Amino acid sequence: MEKIAMIGGGSWATALAKILSENGARVGWWMRSKDDVQHLQRTRHNRRYLSSVAFDLTRIFPSSDLDAVVKEADWLVLAVPAAFVKDVLDKLDRDTLRHKRIITAIKGMIPGKNILVTDYVAERFRLPHAQLGVVAGPCHAEEVALEKQSYLTIGSPSPELAEDFCRLLRNRYVKAHPMDDLDGIEYCAVMKNIIALTSGIAHGLGYGDNFQAVLVSNAVQEMRRFVHALNPQPRDLSASAYLGDLLVTAYSQFSRNRTFGNMIGRGYSVKSAQMEMNMVAEGYYAVKSIHELNKKLLVPMPITSAAYHILYEKISPAVEIELLKEKFK
Ligand SMILES: NC(=O)c1ccc[n+]([C@@H]2O[C@H](COP(=O)([O-])OP(=O)(O)OC[C@H]3O[C@@H](n4cnc5c(N)ncnc54)[C@H](O)[C@@H]3O)[C@@H](O)[C@H]2O)c1
Ligand SMILES: O=P(O)(O)OC[C@H](O)CO
């Protein structure tokens, strides 16, 4: 039986814990809140996220003791929002992860450091990237809870690691395939959140489907320019790990980033939009990281710049989207 440490108590951790435990893995499940752990042990449900999912307590082992959960596992799955992952990982001893395989399910960067989560893990724990992988693809936790057909991509420079983790995920409603483009997948997953957020802003301002389709088309070009500047190698951005993920986030009713953007477009402040949501819109943090990273690269990124001006410089969303409108073809 594969032993997994699931790190995080949010929607995506809950969805992955469901898939992995129902496939037969033993899932030690770390959550910050002792009350949430006790509730899960008592009722078999995560009371805060995907609360309809009932867990088998002979397969999942909730705990708020991070060291104990990590110690017992062969695999570590990181599923806390990027803004908090450094705080969590810095609690662990540098040698703890030496013989473990690490999968990040996070679609964000380390704020302040502006580096990918895999790069932070490799640096902090002195691990080769071949010990790391990323879960990507268009997949909302809410649809996993409903067992709707979904597709995941495991990116890793190690084909063996990627295929082993795909095997742990595949089931009646999840198809998983390996890819070797770790950086490209991770950067695109970060960027699609910014695009979805901007798409939500435009929607909140009253722009329609016609504009959104042009925004998303221009976004693909922006993603291509940026990812190529950071990591030039041939990649087909129409693959589901890139374009598929952008589309689901930009169009779905379940999207945190689009919902957050929609509120901003309707006139909410960042603080009030964040308070209204029980969930984290990664795009808010990603905008700052990508904007800062691009100060050196100087890649033309009109959508990211517009989102940055709106969220961090308090420029009116209506003005920024009006300016963006003139740049699109
Ligand atoms: N939800 C999805 O469908 C989905 C799918 C793929 C990837 N992801 C990625 O998974 C990661 C986790 O997102 P999610 O959707 O599960 O989160 P979520 O929005 O459902 O939940 C928020 C999480 O943040 C945690 N949190 C809030 N404040 C915190 C703090 N101060 N310190 C530590 N943790 C705190 C909460 O406990 C909770 O676990 C993100 O990077 C997201 O992009 C999510
Ligand atoms: O659509 P969001 O903003 O909730 O992000 C969730 C996932 O990344 C979708 O694959």
From TrEMBL:
The Glycerol-3-phosphate dehydrogenase NAD-dependent N-terminal domain, residue ranges: 3-161
UniProt binding sites for sn-glycerol 3-phosphate: K107, G137, K192, D245, S255, R256, N257
The main place the protein resides is cytoplasm
Active site residues per record: K192 (proton acceptor)
Instruction: Provide the residue positions that the database annotates as binding NAD(+).
Output: F84, A141, R256
Q: According to its UniProt record, which reaction does this protein catalyse?
A: sn-glycerol 3-phosphate + NAD(+) = dihydroxyacetone phosphate + NADH + H(+); sn-glycerol 3-phosphate + NADP(+) = dihydroxyacetone phosphate + NADPH + H(+)
Keyword vocabulary terms for this entry: Cytoplasm, Lipid biosynthesis, Lipid metabolism, NAD, NADP, Nucleotide-binding, Oxidoreductase, Phospholipid biosynthesis, Phospholipid metabolism
The protein's name is: Glycerol-3-phosphate dehydrogenase [NAD(P)+]
